[in-house]
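Quick illustration, no need to memorize.
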Amino acid sequence: MTMRFRKLIAVSAFFTVVIFLTPPLFAQKLFGGGGGGGGGGNAWGNNGGKNNSGLEKAIVGGIFGAIEQGIRASSHNDHHDHHDHHDHHDHHDHYNHHDRHGHYNTRPYYPQWSNNNYQQYYSPPNPAPVKAAPAPPKIVTPAKNKAPVKIVAAKKNTVLNPNVIRGLSLADIDRANEKLRDQQDEKLDDIEDDLEEALPPSDTDLITQMDAAGIQDPTIQKQILDAKNKGDSAQTQILFNTNADPAHKGEAADLAKKIDLQNDLIDLREENRDGKLSQRDIDRFKDKSKGLLPPGPKRDDLLADFDDMSKTAEVQDLLDNAVPNPGMSGLGGGSVTVIYNPNLPEGSVINLGNGSMMVGTGGAGDLYISSSSLAAAMGLPVAVSQPVPESDGKIPTSGVVLRNGSDNGAEIAYVINDKYDYLMKSGHLQTLGEGKWVVRYDRGGSFGEAKYTLTTGTYEFTPTDSGWALFAKKFDIKIDNSGNPNEFQYVVNNVSAVVGPYSVKTHHSAYPLEVRFDRGDGKGEERKVLNGGTFLVAVSPGDNLWDLYSNDGIPVLAGDRSGGINLFGN
């Protein structure tokens, strides 16, 4: 039995003795009733005698209830935590009555009303520990991105259109050579006519000549005729000289020279028929015969015929070395040998595959040979100056740009937004970006100060009669494709553009213009930064690719088809 329980029994016994030994006094003192059997009123206004008996019973019950509670408490302590889980179902084990003197249990309590209208007090339950809610994860907000700019790629440009370039088959080459041999043979006929007086006479004329020279023996005449027709100049000379009168013996040497010239002409015909006629053979015959005719129209015709034959022989050499069906091979950069042929439709191109080509002129002019660029041969514009330099510098496309022209030759001081002072040299610029910018500067001399509020565009400091001025600068460019039979694709300030065949297109901007284009080889883009002016679309003669050329460019190349060789007339 615990010490607490022993104290509780002792107190309960003491109160029991007091109540039973002195009931009248207890009742009188506690409830304000009188002594004796009369019974007076109490604090609730009831009959004292009637209520004392009930109150005594309640007190006694309370005392014994306290004893019972003590026993239970003792039993609870003896069992420790064995029955702790039953405490949540027995309410009487969790509250204590307060005594009449206002002494309360020091444990925390909660007020509760019972059915007999007595206020009861309960100790608070021991709640299960509440776990703290986990902190919500921190949500990271992405940084603001500038809207991306998609780079527009330049479309491919074509320099050499394979659809218009043809090749020759082996049969085509053979037919062309045959045609040229026929033409050369016809020219030899013309030359023979031109040299009629320098060639041996016909048999009839030679018989007449022999009769006049005293050679009248038919046998000798036949021998001389046979020797002449065989081209035996030596035998002809011997027979004529042996049998002629002394006054005509000199005619024998002249007759031999004519037979030798005839032999050379026959050799040319045979070489031509065999496809072996060369320019050297033609030039050698020309040198031998050009002095046989006196100056005059006949001699001029003779020399022109020789020139035509020589150049036709050059065409024959090109065809002899032609590659059947070459496609685009053999058409590299630099110059090519071009045969302009009026018998072919205009614009048609035949690649011979050996660095030469034939271009049709549609009946215009005569057949002639020229050395030129491939682009010029195909009727494309060819540059005669250096191209606009390529640029990789970044250019502004928004905000404010200040410039001091390179031709100003002077510095200018200015202040931005009343805070920042600058000194700009000639030929320099400053990019301020987007926003509102206040520019102040001294005009110079006695012209005072100038102030401008700028938000967008390019502005250039410019000397005037009233001092320094700040002018808005516009950038206008023309893409001149007037010499190109094809359209030209490009990108200007990241916007696709195209200028049509034989056309010009103009662009306007408040900033320098960036122009990108494919040169025609599909190997990347050429980039130019243009500040204004007219720019020609032309082919570089060095690599046969497109480029842009300023109208103000200094000519460094010569391009002229007039140097071509006319095969059939000067």
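Residues 41 and 263 are 184 Å apart (CA to CA).
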